[in-house]
Amino acid sequence: MKSPAEIVRLMLENDAYSNWLGICVQEINEGFCKISLQVNASMLNGFQIAHGGITYALADSCLAFAANSFGNKAVSIDTTISHLKKVSLNDVLTAESELINKGKKVGVYLVHIKNQENERVALFKGHVHFSSEIW
Amino acid sequence: MKSPAEIVRLMLENDAYSNWLGICVQEINEGFCKISLQVNASMLNGFQIAHGGITYALADSCLAFAANSFGNKAVSIDTTISHLKKVSLNDVLTAESELINKGKKVGVYLVHIKNQENERVALFKGHVHFSSEIW
Amino acid sequence: MKSPAEIVRLMLENDAYSNWLGICVQEINEGFCKISLQVNASMLNGFQIAHGGITYALADSCLAFAANSFGNKAVSIDTTISHLKKVSLNDVLTAESELINKGKKVGVYLVHIKNQENERVALFKGHVHFSSEIW
Amino acid sequence: MKSPAEIVRLMLENDAYSNWLGICVQEINEGFCKISLQVNASMLNGFQIAHGGITYALADSCLAFAANSFGNKAVSIDTTISHLKKVSLNDVLTAESELINKGKKVGVYLVHIKNQENERVALFKGHVHFSSEIW
Question: Hey, CA dihedral for B85, B89, B90, B94, is it positive or negative?
């Protein structure tokens, strides 16, 4: 059976979009993930702040890595995100997972997203479905 | 006062991320928006399907354009997305807004996201806050 | 195999809380449910409007009846509700399900809640998990 | 200006539904609330477990008390709840608010709902709108 770190390495290999986002893995443990990215000019919307889709993508990747690191392939069912603070060019966003509940088939996570000043910029909640397929 | 189409044109000008996504505006009316994008190789995750952040970004842009087209600057408060079907390379996704309720300060939208076969790939719900600032 | 109407009758039997709410079944078909209740004095909060929990309970029951009527026992995973309009004493609320997606294990529903003037008072979205247990 | 405890006392006065639920206030501070209830036979659904609307109502009341205790009248905009564990007859549920973000007009809260064994039974997230009206 693969380790959490090996699973995430496999997930990131050939992951073109995470590569484009410049996602850095800070920490991976069984069921836990902490990742970050830096906002560049391509990630800005017309208001010259980060598009909501960038913060969402970071949080959704964090959820995926955390949930898959248990060893079974997992897909997200539904997710919600509350945008709390504007994100600007060059900000460094860090997403950290918090496992709320793990059932046999469904897991619930919060993902906390903060900037380089340790201020919350978004709160994400996601449900995942654990399949029977092993990594 | 600017027309809905002028507002969205202003929003899209200098919007680097929407440009990167290749968002095409299909239809803009007061409070309504329909936009699309085609999934390219840079948008795929390690499973070789579109990253959830791509579908989210399209829906979030659709919400932003629809809500701002009323004439007051609007920001999203909270959004949820349910991913219903896998999205593959070269799929064309279309997002269409449905206004559920418009109060003085808060609006509620559904955004329906379908692929080129007219199959739902995601359902998005968002709340926006209308500011007093005029476009 | 039991019919949708039989399943809902079984669910309502010995359902003390639905009895307390005074839920009336308007229509049941496979995967579909429409139910109503009238707001009484016991359902009001300190502002003398219906407590949000009343509208939620009606929508959640509607989801449960709709999802179980396919024939497999189903439980809700996650639900969201947007409260759009105040609900007053003696208002009659009707909740109607809309099936958005049915997978093997997970289903997604919207539930539309309107008052006697046919005005939306809330929008509810729910995910259900279909078990292998048959009614 | 009224204290948090006075505001919640006012809210609970003439609150017929909270009275029916048997809500007990455990702790009120500025922006914070902890309340509980015990599940009785009238709160059960046809599966002889507590109806989802009961847990929701407790969480929604907790949100309302916490948000209004800042001193401005506050109403909830949208809420989500994840049901994590079955709730049985005679269980004692405690809901505790966690303020995630407070802007001028919008606040975001988590509400953690646990049973008498200190097990999570649900996780609730809510957005409130702070009006300019003072208690």
Answer: positive
- The answer on pLDDT for B14 being more than 90 is no
ipTM: 0.95
3-state secondary structure of B83: strand
Q: How far is B116 from chain D (nearest CA, A)?
A: 31
The one-letter amino acid at B86: K
Residues 6+ apart with CB under 8 A from A77: A106, A126, A127, A128, A129, B82, B83, C77, C78, C106, C127
Q: How far is B126 from chain A (nearest CA, A)?
A: 10
Residue to substitute from A76, A100, A104, A106, interface C, most C β-carbons within 10 A: A106
Tell me the HSE value of C89 on the side-chain side, using a 13 A CA sphere. Answer: 11
Rounded to whole angstroms, the Cα distance separating A6 from A15 reads 15
**Chains in contact with B, counting 3 or more C-beta pairs less than 8 Å apart as contact:** A, C, D
- pLDDT the model gives residue A14: 83
- The partner residue sitting opposite A80, judged by closest CB among D80, D100, D103, is D80
In 3D space, the residue among C80, C73, C72, C71 whose CA is nearest the CA of residue C109 turns out to be: C80
What chain D holds in terms of domains, given with CATH numbers, is 4-134 (3.10.129.10)
Closest listed residue to residue B122, CA positions, set A60, C61, A63, A108: A60
**CA neighbor of B127 nearest in space, from B96, B93, B100, B95:** B100
Helix, strand counts (H, E) of chain D? 3, 6
List Cβ neighbours of C3 (8 Å cut-off, separation of 6 or more): none
Reported as a single tens digit per residue, the pLDDT across C26-39 is: 999 999 999 999 99
Tokens, residue A49: 């702040």
